[in-house]
Amino acid sequence: MDQLRMADTPLGQVIYTLTRKRIKNWNLRVREGRVLLSVPLRVTQEQADEFIRGRADWILQTLERQRDAQKLTLEELPRPECLLRLTAAVKQVYPLVEPLGVPMPSLRLRKMRSQWGNCHYRQGYITLNTALAACPEALRSYVALHELVHFIHPDHGPGFYALMDRLMPDWKARRRELKKYRL
């Protein structure tokens, strides 16, 4: 049974939907401007409110990001156009990683809900979201390079970010810009 709740936080009020289920773990989601919290049956309303208060900063940032993203919904391009644009993005940034021993990966395209791309370094390919093709070229290049750098640093550790800083000094600004787009 869903219950609409309101939690007062130092950052303001957070209205959320509380759902109790036969589950083990708590699940907090922000979807289309709504805050949704699923909890195990034994959790009290007060515990749920406290959980929301503890994550108010993240919740409010996510809501703000989603509001910004609503302004920039991407049009879906035909698959051949996606392939053309995303292949060009990979080819544009590949010379940055080639001297570091990264082999040219195969490129796969997929419509993804929650990420712009991913790297399968052991299998030698990267997957890019078809929605990325509708983004500006600088953002396509950023995501392509991000995935290529994973061939050297598979995780998001300090080495990964140091290499991104070296190869694309403005990558953080590009990432901020990319967050304005809705997947």
Question: Which features would summarize this protein structure in a list?
Answer:
alpha/beta; four-stranded mixed β-sheet; three-stranded mixed β-sheet; Zincin-like; 2 domains; 26% strand; 6 helices
Q: Count of helices?
A: 6
At CATH level 2, the architecture of the largest domain is: 2-Layer Sandwich
The termini sit apart by 30 Å
Total of domains: 2
Estimate the global geometry from the Cα principal axes: elongated
Low-confidence stretches: none
Stated plainly, the CATH topology of the largest domain is called Zincin-like
Structural class: alpha/beta
**Biggest β-sheet: count, sense, barrel?**
4 strands, mixed
Helical coverage, percent range = 40-55%
From the alpha carbons, calculate the radius of gyration and give it in angstroms: 20 Å
Run of helices and strands: EEEEHHEHEEEHHHE
CATH class of the largest domain: Alpha Beta
Instruction: For the largest sheet, list the strands in their spatial order.
Output: 1-2-4-3
Strand coverage percent: 25-35%
Mean pLDDT: 91
Classified in CATH, the superfamily of the largest domain is: Metalloproteases ("zincins"), catalytic domain
Structure description:
By secondary structure, the chain is of the alpha/beta class. It folds into two domains: 2-70, no CATH class; 79-182, Metalloproteases ("zincins"), catalytic domain (Zincin-like, 2-Layer Sandwich), CATH 3.30.2010.10. Helix content is 41%, strand content 26%. The protein contains six helices and nine strands, in the order ββββααβαβββαααβ. It has a four-stranded mixed beta sheet with strand order 1-2-4-3. A three-stranded mixed beta sheet has the order 6-8-7, with helices on one face. The longest helix is centred in the middle third of the chain and has 19 residues, at 79-97. The protein is elongated and about 55 Å long. The chain starts with a strand and ends with a strand. The relative contact order is 0.12.
